[in-house]
Amino acid sequence: MYLLISLPQALNGFILVVTSEGLIFYSSHTIQDYLGFHQTDVMHQSIFELIHTEDQQEFKRNLHWALNPPHAPKGELSPEEGKSVGSCAVTYKPDQLPPENSSFLERSFVCRFRCLLDNSSGFLALNLQGRLKFLHGQNKRSEDGSVLPPQLALFAISTPLQPPSILQIRTKNMIFRTKHKLDFTPLACDAKGKIVLGYTEAELRMRGTGYQFIHAADMLHCAENHVRMMKTGESGLTVFRLLTKENRWKWVQANARLVYKNGKPEYIIVTQRPLVDEEGGEHLQKRSMHLPFTFATGEALLYHSAYPIPGFPDPFKNKGKTSKSKKTSHNCEGLSQKNGINPRSLMSTVMQQDKAVY
Questions:
Q1: For residue 231, what are the CA distances in angstroms to 65, 146, 225, 303, 312?
Q2: CA dist., res. 6 & res. 205, Å (int)
Q3: What are the structural domain ranges in the chain?
Q4: Which residues have a Cβ under 8 Å from the Cβ of 122 and sit 6 or more positions away?
Q5: Locations of Polar residues compositional bias (predicted)?
Q6: How far is Cα 56 from Cα 37, in angstroms, rounded to an integer?
Q7: Hey, CA dihedral for 163, 169, 175, 179, is it positive or negative?
Q8: Contact between residue 257 and residue 124 where contact means Cβ atoms under 8 Å apart
Q9: DSSP characters for 157-188?
């Protein structure tokens, strides 16, 4: 048992089990160290959501026992693909397949996977090495209601094509990740983040917007990159200060990425690396002071800018129809639009912070 638990940590990679339909049946928790996705975020999701579009056919090919998946005519979806995006499942009877220990079922190939930790291309090339084996305990049924026999699934170890550098190995132990709603409200934080910041997940969620934890002098810089991320899917490297539970400011270098589900943004994953104060100060001196909006007039609303964000309704479009929602004009500190400050603005967020932290 101990060997099974410690095996993923000993690997320079992670374990992956993918069904013939292309669904991730299992992933070891170490996937987070290589791709930035939490284990629970990827399990039972389509593997093709993570794979580069140019490599999806190669992955489908390797899911098929004869490396020859069925192809639908151009512009048409096969019946299987209509049920599951990217599906290439074919139901077999065990006696139609070669023995499970046959060399025909061994697999070794390379695919590019979406990586939340990569700041250049956004993808990491992985070598997948393993074999097709029968996946038991699925209890799937055919259209007539009969129980289907166990089907083949890919059991593979996924390792980076390019070994990590010594610097990457050293810094990996300091990196932590947080999960947020689209307006940056915290949802979750990994174990390393809890150690660096000192908060529990419940304490992070209590304060509402994640901007409550950001230094006032860094808020507009973060908001500008937040807007960029909502438009492009990635914030780019952002250096700012986070408030720890001990009321101290901790410099971090962060990169935020949108995570999509069924083609729509679902949440934000932020990968953060702690910096020493001197390094943070250097970034502050280099920071551009050009800002896309004004801090004090209430224009700095959370990811609201002069440019429409494709796929998102404008929450400010129907400003005149707010008579039924007077309660929303007051926040937990009693701030009101009567004083000219929108409770959703960054100025309102600053006014809610404890002055003692500065």
A1: 41, 48, 10, 10, 10
A2: 32
A3: 13-67+104-163, 169-291
A4: 114, 115, 234, 257
A5: 334-344
A6: 19
A7: positive
A8: no
A9: EEEESSPPPHHHHHHHTT-EEEEE-TT--EEE
User: Which token pair is 289?
Assistant: 């002071």
Residues pairing with 253 in the sheet: 239, 273
In angstroms, what CA-CA distances link 143 with 86, 95, 119, 135? 21, 21, 46, 20
* pLDDT, tens digit (0-9, with 9 covering 90-100), for 294-350: 444 444 444 443 334 444 444 444 444 433 433 333 444 444 455 667 777 788 888
Q: Contact, 316 vs 299, CB < 8 A?
A: no
Number of residues in the chain: 358
- Rounded CA gap, 71 and 64, in Å? 12
For 74, 161, 342, the CA distances from 262, given in Å and listed in that order, are 22, 28, 34
Instruction: Sort 337 into a burial class: Cβ within 10 Å, 0-12 / 13-18 / 19+.
Output: middle
Residue 93 three-state SS: coil
CATH T-level topology, domain 13-67+104-163: Beta-Lactamase (3.30.450)
pLDDT digits (tens, 9 = 90+) for 81-123: 433 444 445 566 666 666 666 778 899 999 999 887 765 677 8
Eight-state DSSP code of residue 324: G
Q: pTM above 0.85?
A: no
Q: What percent of the chain has pLDDT over 70?
A: 70
DSSP, residue by residue, 190-248: -HHHHHHH---HHHHHHTSSGGGGB-HHHHHHHHHHHHHHHHHSB---EEEEEE-TTS-
Domains 13-67+104-163 and 169-291 share a fold: yes
What stretch of H or E contains 67?
A: none
Which are the contacts of 6, defined by CB distance < 8 A and separation ≥ 6?
A: none
Neighbours of 94 (CB within 10 A): 12
Contact 97, 152 (CB under 8 A): yes
From the number of C-beta atoms within 10 Å of its C-beta (0-12, 13-18, 19+), residue 192 rates as middle
